[in-house]
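Record pair follows.
FIRST:
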Amino acid sequence: MQNIQDVFNRIQESKKETRSIKLLYKDALESSGEYREIAEKLEQLRARKKQLEGIAWEEAGSRDKFETTKLDLKQDREMLSDLALSTLMKGETVKVVDQDNNEYEPLFSVRFKKANVIS
């Protein structure tokens, strides 16, 4: 079995390597005049797209309701995760069923973030 620190170190090295490759890629693109022209056109089109989306939201008149519903959905997902973890920690089986009688079981994952250690 591999050591968790060795795997973490390998991931960190791979991240560094992908960053350096991305920088080389971006430098190659930036040196291309045609790429810069297309990028400028793309920015203009994005700005126009934003304008059209804004007009559509105004016509629909439901932007606030959309944002509220989106926030509620995020909060409900967090609550569902908390409840599933609590239920699992009690030793109980965790599953939910949708309207079509499809069963869902939880999928847990572990992520690491840098610890806030003051040196």
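SECOND:
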Amino acid sequence: MSIFIVQLGTPRKPREGLRLGTVRRPPRGVPKSDFARLDYYDVWFPNLSPSAELVKEALGAADQRTWAAFSRKFRREMSEPDRSRELDLLAALSRRRISR
């Protein structure tokens, strides 16, 4: 199974499979029961999004230097043991072929 990055609400492709939501906060005003129906995501997995502090920093990034600093900090967060293991699991799942 391959992993693709898509924007929330992007129409699903045929046989796309499970869609993980890696946003820090779920969409406002949308009932949880509608997330999959509206092509947002099937499972919310915010552990793979930047911390709330880093989200604020990213939203305020006005130039390449600020964005580069955000990127370094986010990579540091993702290298923490729990996050790293979660990424390892997703990588292993993406390499595994699933027959239907």
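COMMENT: The radius of gyration is 15 Å.
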